[in-house]
Amino acid sequence: MIVCCLVKGGGADRVKAFELTDFDIDQQLLTLPGASLLVFTSVGCSSCRWARQQLPGWDLPVEHLCWVDAGHNGGAVARYGIFHLPALFVVCEGQLHGALQVRLNPSDLSDAINEALKQLPEELP
């Protein structure tokens, strides 16, 4: 099930947020237009809770924030090779542009997303 909402605040009024699951992650990522930041989180992870609060308000170079609860979506966790949380990936036009290993602040994350979008894309896992 997808929950879609317009995120308000900062410069992020244009960003839509989605909750993805094992059942719809592939379909949604293949059909979403533009760039998406795919974020795996968990309720018990304090860094994840902080990211869920902060990222929607940041002016990032993406059209979508796609959240996946790692605790309830083991299939997606296995396919994406998640070993730590939060885990971030850039997807654009249904293709994977890579995992992001970056400090979570607006400037560094924006730079990392822009760099990832310059890389040759791969198929989704």
Structure notes:
This protein is an alpha/beta fold. It has a single domain, classed as Glutaredoxin, CATH 3.40.30. It is 29% helix and 26% strand. It has 4 helices and 6 strands, in the order ββαβαβαββα. Strands 1-2-4-3-5-6 form a 6-stranded mixed sheet, sandwiched between helices. Strand 3, helix 2 (46-54) and strand 4 (64-69) form a beta-alpha-beta unit.
Give the total of beta strands: 6
Helix segment count? 4
* SSE string: EEHEHEHEEH
- Which strand order spans the largest sheet, edge to edge or round the barrel? 1-2-4-3-5-6
Distance between the termini: 20 Å
Q: What is the 3D shape? A: globular
Structural class: alpha/beta
> If you consult CATH, what is the topology?
Glutaredoxin
Residues in helix, %: 25-40%
CATH superfamily: Glutaredoxin
Mean pLDDT: 92
Q: How big is the Rg?
A: 13 Å
Q: Which class in CATH terms?
A: Alpha Beta
Tell me what portion of residues adopts beta-strand conformation: 25-35%
Give a quick account of the main beta sheet: strands, pairing sense, barrel closure.
Answer: 6 strands, mixed
Please name the CATH architecture.
3-Layer(aba) Sandwich
Offer a concise description of the structure.
With 125 residues, this protein is α/β, with parallel strands linked by helices. It is 29% helix and 26% strand.
Q: Which structural traits does this protein have?
A:
6 strands; Glutaredoxin; globular; disordered N terminus; single chain; alpha/beta; 125 residues; six-stranded mixed β-sheet
